[in-house]
Amino acid sequence: MLSCSVNAKETLQVAVASNFKTVLQTLLKKSPLPNVDVKISAASSGVLYSQIVHGAPFDVFLSADDFRPQSLIKEGYAEQSSLITYALGELALWQPKTEKVNDKVAIANPRFSPYGRASEHYANNHFKKPINYVYGNNITHAFQFVQSGNVGVGLVAVSSLRAAYSNTQDQKYLDYTVLPTNQYPDIIQQGVIISSTKKHASAKQLMQFLMAEATQQQLIELGYRIKDNNASK
User: Fold this and answer.
1) Which of 51, 79, 144, 201 could form a disulfide with 56 if both were Cys (CB 3.0 to 4.6 A apart)?
2) For residue 214, pLDDT beyond 90
3) Which helix (H) or strand (E) holds 167?
4) CA 163 to centroid of chain Cα atoms
């Protein structure tokens, strides 16, 4: 049960890694925070990190990695006590049209995206070289390259495929292979409350909601692993 009380409805500005935007919207449909209007700004984790450092008025940052939230804490931009590991990302190899063969592989840009770094690590160790990468600005953009048919193969987030199938029931979103998690670096998705927020109670409510048992179980259904399931890795 959420213990933090909020007296009046207020807007919470949440910076969200692109892979988690649709998922967070799905989670919030149950109105878990009745006194809070959550406004989502989605981009790659690297872009959002830069915006926060340069003064963007976010209250919460939900990153696709652990490096940037912890860097914000060290630099004084985020609260140490607020740090959570809300999910662990999963990668899939998606090739919806097997007859379409080319030498291009869509991945998120490793410079900005933790999913991109994990994808590059997997591809460099399991694909024939040289690899002709097509870089998306983030993992959602990489997914869209394959979805549009412009690229035949992509390393994408399992959550993107699950969300697309849920919305369309199109069988092409089921034609993927989940990659073994021991074949790429962990995608540890952490979140923090930004130190400058004036909406601390609402921000804390959101963090508590994300870590609630029911939410964590729903995240598994939506294409993620959770921290407790990673004990053996």
Assistant:
1) 51
2) yes
3) helix 158-168
4) 13
